[in-house]
């Protein structure tokens, strides 16, 4: 499943973001994602067992800190690739004095914006 944090309809809570960022394995994954990588590539870069790595990738994608996309391969064995989906995370007190979170996302290219627009058109038809 491909998950796009920018197109996500529900924003993660401050607790979900803090939980993901408090996890040392999650921080290790983020540190190593200077370019999009598959889980297999991350396993070789991080000192994290593969089964643990998949759970951490799920936590990070669910909290919209990572973007999951599909790498199409000629042999038909497609792979998920993961990339960091934020530039900055700010945690603050909102008007009712509860924790809130603001996530600054990287700027999207014209191609990415066009793909997002077509995705929205497909949803409506």
UniProtKB/TrEMBL annotation:
Pfam families hit by this protein: HTH_20
Annotated protein name in UniProt: Helix-turn-helix domain-containing protein
Species in which this protein is naturally found: Natribaculum luteum
